[in-house]
Amino acid sequence: MKQSENRWKILAVCLTLTAVLGGCISSEEETQDNEKDMIVVGFSEVGAESDWRVANTESMRNTFVEEDGYELMFEDAKQKQDNQIAAIRNYILQEVDYIVLAPIVETGWDEVLLEAKEAHIPVIVVDRMISVADESLYTAWVGSDFRAEGDMAVEWLEEKLKEQGRENEEIQIVHVQGTEGASAQLGRTAGLEAGLKKHSNWKLAARVMGEFTQAKTYEVILDLLEKGTEMDVIYCENDNSAFGAIQALEEKGVSCGTDGDVMIISFDATRAGLTYCLEGKINLDVECNPLHGPRVASIIAQLEKGEVPDKQWFVSETYFTKENLSQDLIDSREY
Ligand code: GZL
Predict the structure, then answer these.
(1) Residue 36 has pLDDT above 80, yes or no
(2) How far, in Å, are 28, 102, 147, 333 from residue 291 at the CA level?
(3) Quick one: angle between helices 239-251 and 51-63, nearest 10?
(4) I want to staple 212 with a disulfide (CB 3.0 to 4.6 A). Which of 25, 72, 88, 178 is the partner?
(5) pLDDT tens-digit series, residues 317-335
(6) What is the mean predicted confidence (pLDDT) over 177-206?
(7) Which atom belonging to ligand 1 lies closest to the Cα atom of 52?
């Protein structure tokens, strides 16, 4: 009796083990299958220097999510190109499927992108441009036409001064530049320089580095105010710089904006920037759209199907003033 009882028990244990192991193996295989199906994207981001940059990161994080079949690896370079290069090398070691690069500056990418090419990993560049000897080092670029943004700002200033009957008056312009060598800085600067060349009555009162941050711009504008620098217009190459300029002006009791002594021109058109615009503190805010996540996803979808995406994709952009803004419009925007 005992023996047959034992035999039944051994049989029951074996059957249970088979079921459990069989289940484990299949769930392990299932996990491996799932991992095989995930598209692994390695994203190297500039940093978190501005509201624009935060929105850009959020767009990427919201797009490359697990439930849509992606695994996103993310590195914040804290505004250092060396950190971006290290991140790209790490993504190559991790054998990601795609590398997405938001380059802090245009140059210095040839060597590391050659390593990505030799590892057969497509590189998609977002936002700012890169300048490489061999264009095949990147598969596609999506971003803004920064020169066009600068031209939009200059055309608006021409019209505004004409409207005020000041088209022949001497106009003192303070130029606050973004990160030196970034496409956004190069393009927006080129736009202003063309305006200064075209209008002999437009004078460059000062050119300072605001590094796209509020803190740095506050510091340099405060310094100019304390030196007594004359200023009719402050041309800020992004919203956070405009916030810093306004902070310094208000601290020194200098009025700015639509009813003030100093006109403020800005770029990005973030929700915070547009709020300043609606309040009349910023005269003009030129849009620079950071929502590149879905655009990159559509480029990857093309590549996954063996299609060839356009090499360059310029996103269309506009500009805002108090006159064409409303709180509803600001509330409806994604960033
Ligand atoms: C522009 C982007 C710039 C933004 C800044 O596309 O590179 O960098 O204008 C950001 O706000 O820091």
Answers:
(1) no
(2) 37, 12, 19, 11
(3) 150
(4) 178
(5) 999 999 999 999 999 999 9
(6) 98
(7) 11
- Measure the CA dihedral 7/13/15/17, to 10°: -150
Query: In angstroms, what is the span from residue 197 Cα to ligand 1's centroid?
Result: 25
Q: Ligand 1: list residues with CB < 6 Å.
A: 49-50, 52-53, 127-128, 144, 182, 184, 212, 238, 267-268, 288
Pocket test for ligand 1, best of 51, 53, 130 (most atoms within 8 A of CB): 53
What local confidence, expressed as pLDDT, does residue 22 receive?
A: 47
pLDDT digits (tens, 9 = 90+) for 203-256: 999 999 999 999 999 999 999 999 999 999 999 999 999 999 999 999 999 999
Give the tokens for residue 90: 């790490």
- 181 within 8 A of 212, measured Cβ to Cβ: no
- The answer to whether the CB of 99 falls within 8 A of the CB of 88 is yes
C-beta of residue 225 within 8 angstroms of C-beta of residue 254: yes
Residues 6+ apart with CB under 8 A from 29: none
Tell the residue number behind the tokens 């956070």, with chain if given: 240
**Ligand 1 mean position to 95 CA, how many Å?**
29
Q: What is the pTM of this model?
A: 0.88
With the C-alpha atoms ordered 172, 173, 174, 180, is the resulting torsion angle positive or negative?
Answer: negative
